[in-house]
Amino acid sequence: MSELALKAEKLDVADELAAKRDGFVLDDVVYLDGNSLGALPVAVPGRVEDVVRRQWGELRIRSWTEGGWWTAPERIGDRIAPLVGAAAGQIVVGDSTSVNVFKALVGAVRLARSAGPERDEIVVDATTFPTDGYIAGSAARMTGCTLRPVTPSEVPGALGDRTAAVLLNHVDYRTGRLHDLPSLTAAVHAAGAVVVWDLCHSAGALPVGLDEHGVDLAVGCTYKYLNGGPGSPAFLYVRADLQDRFDSPLPGWNSHVEPFGMRSAYEPAAGAARGRVGTPDILSMLALEAALEVWDGVAVDAVRAKSLALTDFFLECVETYVPDGRTECVTPRAHGERGSQVALRCPDAGEVMKRLIERGVVGDFRHPDVLRFGFTPLYVGFADVERAARALAEVLA
Length: 397
Prior knowledge:
Layout: H1 3-14, E1 24-25, E2 30-31, E3 40-41, H2 43-59, H3 72-80, E4 91-93, H4 97-115, E5 121-125, H5 130-143, E6 146-150, H6 155-158, E7 163-169, H7 181-190, E8 194-198, E9 217-220, E10 235-238, H8 282-291, H9 300-321, E11 328-329, E12 341-345, H10 349-358, E13 361-362, E14 364-366, E15 370-374, H11 382-396
């Protein structure tokens, strides 16, 4: 057994989160793609069967009240809240990440213009996931704003009296770079603008501190580190003191103050429910609720500590096993600048990942030449990390 394999054994023995692995449906594959789709928690199949057979099959319409369907968006939002550093009553679950980005960004422009109608510019992360950029462009056209794409490091210098809203990613989806949420939020506020954070690659992987840092609005998906399943509903955070002024561009009967009043005039509900639109997607939403049970008794700080340890160990293994010059790490080495993934640049990344998957190591790649390895601390161990790096070296040899 190699020195690094022995080290992995010792690290796994000392791992305080190791027992959480039993809460997932896993096999002998090293699964390092939880930053795209989290593994299946063991509680989900039984819960979905109950929802389908008993709640839908037997109770039918009564489940909206007796099964708690109607209150699920806010109830599950409160379950996610501590994982992103938010108090209860500020998160609603429902719709896709894309829809919530649209709601949040247009809502942010409207909030900014309520204080300064001359604000007519939206600043967007130029390195963002493409959909965020598409939606920012659409939101700019709809609100009569100009769109200004800049890199996150350029944001403070791009802000001014005309800035209405700023849309940023907490973690870069390609490189795994963690952006400075506290300082960037403060800079946006100092300019009198409203900030929207996309937490898709940080929620469930590291502390976010939405309330602590005064974030205005945030969105995030639940199928990555929160393990909610493919297409599970996203979430929308609106800070408590902004909720009575949050003007969603998608008002629906579910967000009406009296949803069953069927009135022609819209009057928004109070609180997080203002972010709802139409009928909740109950099957996937309640699967998500079951999936979130794996977080019982887990501190996000402990998850972050293990995440950094896993990524540090992976980089150590890669440097030891992989011949010099075969890969280039594009993920920052500094802990304060790293999310929960490692991205390596190498030629023929698509073919390399295909061969890794054939060897039982699953990650993914991003065009044209980036291998991505996501480290989900609740079910990835140090022996997994050592095996993945060793397999990578064998493929590249």
